[in-house]
């Protein structure tokens, strides 16, 4: 339904340099995307794809090992331009809030757009669930996504560092945190009518 609010849970995986020193001109490029679209508290769409990097098309051994991704996976992925088209489509027709775990996903997306002359696809609001989690529980340090789920006594979805699995895990953690927020909210103060009725009851038992 057009105009209905949409929560968009997004996770990206990025390229990594081989060692501690970055190659000249290196910047992290998006190589996998996971999207979970939620409307009216229900998942209405999931999307997952590999994405071909532009500046450094060959993955480092470190990146392949850490993310368990092969070069063949990436070579068969969509282009960055196609990724922007998909994200733009998700942004259209609905007031959209993008929710991520940490701020790196949107930072890298903005940088990738700037360096490849693409328009940033989102026009709505953004929420960093890791910061909300930190403030809600009074933690000094930011907690990793999967550690946060385990702290709730739950299991994460699928495999860590797979974009769609991490996006789904972010959504599941979002539901847990929101439920806790509602539980801890102070009840509304009694109305004048409530107070009068209570006074009648107290007077009845006082006589």
UniProtKB/TrEMBL annotation:
Keywords: Exonuclease, Hydrolase, Nuclease. The keyword Calcium does not apply. It comes from the Bacteria. Coiled coil: none annotated. InterPro entries: 3-5_Exoribonuclease, ERI-1_3'hExo-like, Ribonucl_H, RNaseH-like_sf, RNaseH_sf. The keyword Nuclease applies. Gene3D superfamilies: Ribonuclease H-like superfamily/Ribonuclease H. SUPFAM superfamilies: Ribonuclease H-like. GO terms for molecular function: 3'-5'-RNA exonuclease activity; nucleic acid binding. PANTHER family: 3'-5' EXONUCLEASE ERI1-RELATED, 3'-5' EXORIBONUCLEASE 1-RELATED. This is 3'-5' exonuclease KapD. It comes from Metabacillus sediminilitoris. The gene is kapD.
């Amino acid at each position: 339904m057009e105009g209905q609010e949409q929560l968009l849970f997004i996770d990206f995986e990025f390229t990594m340099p081989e060692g501690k020193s970055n190659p000249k001109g290196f910047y992290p490029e998006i190589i996998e995307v996971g999207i979970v679209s939620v409307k009216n508290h229900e998942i209405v769409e999931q999307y997952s794809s590999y994405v071909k990097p532009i500046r450094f098309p060959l993955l480092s051994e470190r990146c392949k090992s850490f993310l368990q991704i092969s070069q063949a996976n990436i070579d068969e992925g969509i282009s960055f331009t196609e990724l922007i088209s998909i994200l733009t489509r998700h942004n259209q027709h609905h007031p959209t809030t993008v929710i991520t775990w940490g701020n790196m996903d949107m930072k890298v997306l903005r940088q990738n757009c700037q360096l490849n002359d693409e328009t940033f696809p989102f026009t709505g609001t953004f929420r960093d669930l890791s910061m909300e989690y930190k403030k809600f529980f009074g933690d000094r340090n930011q907690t990793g996504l999967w550690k946060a789920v385990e702290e709730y006594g739950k299991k994460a979805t699928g495999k860590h560092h797979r974009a769609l699995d991490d996006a789904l895990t972010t959504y599941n953690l979002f539901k847990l945190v929101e439920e806790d927020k509602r539980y801890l909210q102070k009840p509304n103060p009694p109305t004048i009518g409530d107070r009068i009725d209570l006074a009648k009851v107290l007077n009845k038992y006082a006589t």
